[in-house]
Write a structure and sequence with these properties.
- The chain has a domain of 53 residues.
- It has a two-stranded antiparallel ribbon with strand order 1-2.
- It is 66% helix and 2% strand.
- About 2% of the residues have low confidence.
- Helix 1 runs antiparallel to helix 4 and helix 10 runs parallel beside helix 15.
- It is mainly alpha-helical.
- It contains 19 helices and two strands.
Length: 523
């Protein structure tokens, strides 16, 4: 029941705000309603610890031949750490909204509350059917939210591409279920046939939320910091939970080492672009690419605990950085807690990120330096972005209560990072891997010290990654989209020819050709 309590609080708060938005437009306490609901939901997640594991199963669907599984939710330690991360992010977004230029904006808080509720349902899903249903609801909610803020038809294409990439993840998960049934076994998060796990990894990767590289609201920095941050990070968390649910026996495939190589290359690309990004908002997608690649690598190495740790670090540590917009010296120093959380040092959130029980082949040892380098770039980039003050705006013109509330949101994210490193799940109070911690720390210090001396390590100019001027990956997406348009025009032209006044003539002509073809083949 505690799962329903948390989700119900979020949905009811969003519904109340929606009613107030239309029925009482002059209502002045929308923010208090949103903050109160988010706070109650955040507190309720901690009560899960009293009864874990939680279980919530709905009655079986009919017919039983078609629906062998029913929607089931389980609140175990991995689901709890994701849920507390999402609830903390939701509360932090609403608390930090008080210093934004567009404050108050209740419609954004409604979207954040709904996405958080669906994200929590996704992380507690206990079977693929439940996860697919929640993913579909989350995708539709994201599509509506993004279409609401987009007016340019060209930017609408980005929304459709993002929706299509997430829908492809759902299709891959469904395909994994069909492959499992073909082997005589129902796909479940506890057992699955060999090689099915690779499909689950691909499904999670497609849904992380990096396609397209930039969301379609490039000029509204306040929207990108608040609602945009929630949209990116909640979507990533609801997808990465699948990596922590993959049965270890299903990853036994000769293709696993090669997929690990591709993942390591993606981590290097994400880390390098994140290190050289002009600011944290323009580089946010590369943070997702790099950190998600490390989570995928942990899952491929049969380390679901480590994959969950990287996933929660994306939400908590990334959320603290992306929501931080004031050059407050105390907050700048506090952000070093986020750097500690990404470092895999003892008792940090990601200390279990490099653990593995599988034997290492020569291919695994080959990509080991790549993953270490990628983590060092991500860590160095985080320190650089967190300590940069040029792009930050002072809140001195804000009311005193807003200036006092804003740091609480950032502090909650950083405090939860410390909490998960010490308490609440089996990955807490871990020493980590000494052979990774030391090289990562040394490389990070090396990158930071060489930055003033090597131009290649300096941030690129903003136009390299600004959505108004897409990167080479965006050009690839646009080329594929143009190809789709041309094929659709050809298809429409053929349909018009066949369905027009001469359609009967063309039908008779094709029929005569088919008859003559088959007549010639008969003796």
């Amino acid at each position: 029941m505690l799962i329903l309590v948390t989700v119900t609080i979020l949905f009811v708060t969003a519904l109340v705000l929606l009613v107030l938005q239309f029925a009482a437009q002059g209502f002045r306490y929308n923010w208090l309603v949103a903050a109160g609901g988010a706070f109650l939901a955040w507190i309720s997640v901690f009560f899960w610890q009293l009864q874990m594991p939680l279980a919530l199963q709905f009655p079986a669907w009919q017919p039983a031949l078609l629906f062998a599984q029913s929607p089931t939710f389980v609140g175990d330690e991995l689901a709890w750490m994701f849920a507390v991360s999402l609830a903390t992010l939701c509360l932090a977004i609403i608390l930090t909204a008080v210093v934004r230029i567009d404050f108050p904006r209740p419609i954004n808080w409604i979207g954040t509350l709904i996405l958080t509720a669906l994200g929590i349902l996704a992380v507690v899903a206990d079977n693929p059917l439940t996860l697919v249903l929640i993913w579909a609801a989350l995708d539709i909610s994201e599509l509506i939210a993004q279409m609401r803020v987009v007016e340019d038809p060209q930017l609408n294409e980005r929304v459709i591409i993002a929706f299509a990439s997430r829908a492809a993840g759902i299709l891959v998960l469904l395909w994994a279920g069909m492959v499992s049934l073909a082997n005589g076994q129902m796909l479940d998060f506890r057992q699955a046939p060999p090689q099915v796990g690779l499909y689950l990894v691909v499904a999670a990767g497609l849904r992380v939320g990096v396609l397209p590289l930039h969301l379609p609201y490039s000029t509204e920095s306040t929207l990108r910091r608040g609602f945009g941050t929630g949209l990116r990070l909640i979507s990533a968390a609801s997808s990465l939970i699948l990596l922590a649910r993959i049965p270890l026996s299903s990853l036994a495939s000769p293709l696993t080492p090669y997929l690990l190589i591709l993942t390591s290359l993606a981590a290097i690309y994400g880390g390098w672009m994140w290190l050289r990004a002009p600011d944290e908002l323009n580089g946010r997608v590369y943070w997702l690419i790099g950190m998600s690649s490390l989570a995928v690598a942990a899952a491929l190495r049969a380390n679901p605990i480590g994959a969950a740790a990287w996933g929660c670090a994306i939400v908590l540590i990334g959320g603290a950085l992306f929501l931080s917009s004031e050059p407050n010296k105390w907050l700048l120093r506090a952000l070093f807690i986020g750097a500690w959380g990404v470092s895999s040092l003892p008792f940090s959130l990601t200390a279990t990120g490099w653990n593995s029980t599988l034997p290492s082949s020569w291919l695994v040892w080959l990509v080991w330096p790549l993953r270490i380098s990628a983590q060092a770039m991500l860590l160095a980039g985080f320190i650089r972005h967190s300590q940069r003050t040029i792009t930050r705006v002072s809140n001195e013109d804000q009311p005193i209560w807003a200036r006092n509330v804003y740091p609480i949101g950032i502090s909650l994210l950083l405090g939860t990072t410390i909490l998960l490193g010490l308490f609440g799940w089996s990955g807490a109070l871990q020493l980590g891997n000494f052979f990774v911690e030391v090289p990562v720390a040394l490389l990070t210090f090396g990158l930071l010290s060489l930055t003033p001396r090597l131009r290649v390590l300096n941030p690129v100019r903003a136009h390299w990654v600004r959505p108004a001027n897409p990167s080479w990956l965006d050009w690839i997406y646009r080329a594929l989209w143009n190809l789709y348009r041309q094929l659709r025009r050809v298809s429409d032209g053929i349909s018009n020819v066949l369905e027009g006044e001469s359609g009967i003539m063309w039908t008779l002509l094709f029929l005569a050709l088919f008859i003559s073809f088959f007549t010639q083949r008969n003796p």
